[in-house]
DNA sequence: CGATCGCCTTGATGGTCATCAAGCTTGCCC
DNA sequence: GGGCAAGCTTGATGACCATCAAGGCGATCG
């Protein structure tokens, strides 16, 4: 990848790469590939051999799985400056465990797995960053498994809305849905119809107001309590 | 913890500790605590401050969460020689993300978090083992999330049964359920009634035979294909 | 041996949410 | 502007599974 000053600076402030020396960052960038992608463009398929992990710079990517019937469940929606597919770093036979596809055109960096593993060997601090990252991911998974197993669709939608809030938000707050409603629905594991109905019933109860992809939470605390 | 030759040998063959030097293993064991527990005994609660991670030597432990209504979802069933709660190693403010409770009386080792982190710093190979372990766990989570989101209860039960098989099993195989059926039900996120009915209907279709906690899969391939 | 207690099974009922099928709104292009 | 397509909404219906309730079965204990 061409040396790009802006990118190098970006990496220096990314928690995953912050602990690297300039030489290591150089080495990593030399083995990395930049790539633009379009909306709807497939980045990799579930089961494809994996030689890279990624950093999203612009746009939006969905990681998802398909049921045999073709139903889609979005596992993660990636936003700029997030990394994804790190776990292929540590697989014996690295294969992507999900499909990856652009939801909104953008640009990403593909880092070479082997190169990064070599760097990890030299940087315990970066090892720690990776492990901390994976630990966070595991936490998030448990939350999601709990939500899917124990809660109904209304709860999942409310939970999702609350998850969009900036930390510490209170009172009346407006959030923007990060993607089309169909995409959100596939993320919270309901049909678009059910999502629509749930938002309507929350509106009817004067808990939220919906205008396109802008959702206003009228009272954060009240919504938190209203989960059941 | 008292030096215990058998335990030291056990650790040497455990993938997570295999790469340690004798001195490191000594150090780790010196900071570890053995603990026996009874069926139904609480080991730690969701949200408790966490200073240890664990290796199960005998018995069975469930990691679970509770909904506000008291419904239980078992996230993992731990069996001897498995480690658990490793992810607390890397949290800033370490707290157990689930409840832990004995399902079958047994014995475990609690390793000191700080000591192990110190050892990780010295052993890149062990870092790799930990990261590989976490990557596997993440994989398993994806599978579970997919199953919960996209599949019905029948599929989940079949999937669970197939997961009990030794790798490469074919034709007619008998497996033993690793816990009471109520526990299995909480694991696959159905009620005991539904589990019972599902097993019955699988029996009626001559896909399996059930006798107490022994389940005979009459034809592994046929069961795989019959998921829908 | 009969009584009791858990666990599991079986049956009847209802709620939740997916599905199917129209309409509606919005943006886009000729 | 008219026409179309895509996404969203709304309504009617039904499948799936939880719930409630009762009965069976095995283990333990006096």
Describe what this molecule looks like in 3D:
Chain A has 8 helices and 9 strands. The first copy, chain A, is of the alpha+beta class. In chain A, helix 3 crosses helix 4 and helix 6 (181-188) packs across helix 7 (192-204). In chain A, 41% of the residues lie in helices and 25% in strands. Chain A binds a DNA duplex (30 and 30 nucleotides) through helix 7.
- Topology, number of strands of chain A: 9
| Shape category of chain A | globular
Give Rg of chain A in angstroms: 19 Å
The main pleated sheet of chain A reads as: 6 strands, antiparallel
Calculate the terminal CA-CA distance of chain A, rounded to whole Å. Answer: 51 Å
- Series of H and E elements of chain A: HHEEEEEEHHHEHHEEH
Specify the structural class of chain A.
alpha+beta
Q: How does the SSE layout of this entry go?
A:
The structure is a homodimer of 228-residue chains.
Chain A: H1 5-12, H2 22-30, E1 33-37, E2 42-44, E3 52-66, E4 72-78, E5 83-84, E6 99-112, H3 113-122, H4 124-150, H5 153-164, E7 173-176, H6 181-188, H7 192-204, E8 208-211, E9 214-217, H8 220-225
Antiparallel strand pairs in A: 1-6, 2-6, 3-4, 3-5, 3-6, 7-9, 8-9
Helix pairs in contact in A: 3-4, 6-7
The first copy, chain A, binds a DNA duplex (30 and 30 nucleotides) through residues 152-154, 180-182, 190-197, 200, 212.
């Amino acid at each position: 990848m061409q040396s790009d000053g802006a990118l190098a600076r970006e990496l220096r402030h990314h928690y995953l790469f912050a602990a690297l020396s300039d030489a290591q960052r150089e080495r990593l960038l030399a083995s990395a590939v930049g790539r633009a992608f379009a909306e709807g463009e497939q980045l990799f398929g579930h089961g494809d051999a994996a030689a890279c992990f990624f950093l999203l710079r612009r746009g939006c990517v969905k990681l998802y799985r398909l049921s045999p019937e073709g139903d889609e469940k979005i596992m993660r929606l990636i936003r700029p400056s997030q990394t994804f597919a790190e776990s292929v770093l540590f697989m014996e036979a690295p294969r992507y465990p999900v499909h990856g596809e652009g939801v909104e055109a953008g640009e990403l960096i593909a880092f070479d797995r082997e190169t990064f593993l070599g760097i990890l060997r030299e940087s315990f601090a970066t090892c720690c960053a990776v492990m901390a990252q994976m630990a966070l991911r595991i936490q998030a998974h448990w939350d999601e498994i709990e939500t899917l197993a124990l809660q109904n669709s209304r709860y999942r939608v409310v939970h999702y809305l609350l998850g969009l809030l900036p930390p510490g938000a209170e009172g009346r707050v407006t959030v923007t849905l990060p993607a089309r409603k169909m995409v959100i629905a596939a993320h919270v594991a309901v049909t678009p119809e059910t999502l629509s109905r749930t938002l309507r019933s929350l509106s009817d109860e004067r808990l939220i107001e919906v205008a396109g992809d802008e959702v206003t939470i009228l009272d954060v605390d009240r919504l938190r309590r209203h989960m059941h």
